[in-house]
Amino acid sequence: MVLAENICGSEVDAQGRCAHYRQHWDVVANRCATCGQWWACHRCHEEGTGHAFGRVSREAADAVLCGACGHRMGYADYHGAAGCPRCGHPFNPGCALHTGLYFL
């Protein structure tokens, strides 16, 4: 299981929230295909690396991580879900606006 301390970003809390996204439901981390690390958000990645965020295939099985329970999931399980399929923690519906930043 990946724990929140393995989520990269600025001021990441115990459930993966960062300095840019701190609401209760901001617990999703995305894996960068370039560096393979989990990131709290695209802005944290921009600040913390020297490369563009490597978008992950929508078919990848481990593209998204729930910071509340560590559950890894693919785009199909994550996209449009109100919350984590394992623990039920709610996800921010506004994240759908960033689909193109994280997925091919």
From TrEMBL:
PROSITE patterns for this protein: ZF_CHY (PS51266)
Record Pfam families: zf-CHY
The entry's keywords: Metal-binding, Zinc, Zinc-finger
Alphabetized SUPFAM superfamilies for the sequence: CHY zinc finger-like
Name this polypeptide is given: CHY-type domain-containing protein
Keyword NADP attached: no
Domain CHY-type residues, every copy: 11-89
Signal peptide location: none
Molecular function (Gene Ontology), one example: zinc ion binding
Keyword Metal-binding annotated: yes
InterPro entries xrefs: UCP017292, Znf_CHY, Znf_CHY_sf
Protein's organism: Corynebacterium mastitidis
